[in-house]
């Protein structure tokens, strides 16, 4: 995970057998996955509740608004408020 700003546009987000291209217009990983009909649980979209917590198996992400307030364990990210800075692979429980 990274806090540095990186180029996100055109990165690939993989979940299982599904791969989605991230566009800057998506804003967040959650929005990108929703646009491809990939189900991710969420509530607040602002990094407060932690409901959208997913496992980051590969790659790097950036939190453009700063670190989220919800608890994020090692290897986890909040899909609602981060962006990929490289191709990433996620596991959604």
Automatic annotation (TrEMBL):
**Which keywords appear in this protein's UniProt record, sorted alphabetically?**
Ubiquinone
Q: Is Nucleus tagged as a keyword? A: no
Q: Which NCBIfam families match?
A: PRK10713.1 (NF007985)
The reply on keyword Aminoacyl-tRNA synthetase is no
Q: Specify the domain of life of the species encoding this protein.
A: Bacteria
Q: Which InterPro entries match?
A: 2Fe-2S_ferredoxin-like_sf (IPR036010), 2Fe-2S_ferredoxin-type (IPR001041), 2Fe2S_fd_BS (IPR006058), Beta-grasp_dom_sf (IPR012675)
| Every 2Fe-2S ferredoxin-type domain range | 9-93
The record, for Pfam families, names: Fer2 (PF00111)
Its recorded name reads (2Fe-2S) ferredoxin
